[in-house]
Design a protein that fits this description.
Blueprint: E1 9-13, H1 16-26, E2 30-33, E3 47-51, E4 59-63, E5 81-87, H2 90-102, E6 109-112, E7 116-122, E8 128-134, E9 152-153
Parallel strand pairs: 1-4, 5-8
Antiparallel strand pairs: 2-3, 3-4, 6-7, 6-9, 7-8
Length: 156
């Protein structure tokens, strides 16, 4: 067996409308289900599916209710964050930063990883999301050790 690509991520969320708004309206994902005409509650319980157009869905949200426990703070087993490529240049990343600030979404980090320039935010349920661009001209395929370069502060 060989993994061909990361297919999708599924997140439990407390409030589907709030989380769908974050991923759809702020991050700009196309909501596939339910459809804008109101059809498509496919599984018989509250879900929302999103796609960037690469595949049928890359993100699925499943509502579990407001009383569900949140993501525990600190070091733990499980998901740390997931990354979403938001452009190809620092200018595009600056525009993302402005959009986040205008929406009142605080940054929880900003890093120069040599291979990427990254901003970090939390979704409404506390899941950390990395919004990044690949740095042009960095040959990580030729030198995979670049992926483990020391993390530096991001200067946009």
């Amino acid at each position: 067996m060989a993994v061909k690509e990361l297919g999708h991520i599924v997140l439990y969320v407390r409030n589907l409308q709030r989380s769908a708004g974050f991923y759809r309206d702020l991050l700009g994902w196309e909501q596939i289900l339910p459809r804008p005409d109101g059809t498509g509650e496919a599984l018989g319980f509250p879900v929302a599916a999103f796609s960037s157009g690469r595949t049928h869905h890359e993100l699925l949200l499943i509502e579990v209710g407001e009383d569900a426990p949140g993501v525990p703070a600190g070091r733990r087993a499980g998901l740390y964050h997931f990354g979403l490529k938001v452009g190809d240049s620092d200018d595009e990343l600056r525009a993302v930063w402005k959009q986040l600030a205008d929406a009142g979404v605080p940054l929880v980090g900003a890093s120069d990883h040599t291979v990427t320039h990254s901003l970090y935010v939390r979704d409404p349920d506390g899941n950390e999301v990395e919004l990044y661009i690949d740095v042009a001209g960095v040959d990580w395929r030729g030198d995979p050790t670049l992926i483990a370069s020391p993390i530096r502060p991001l200067h946009l």
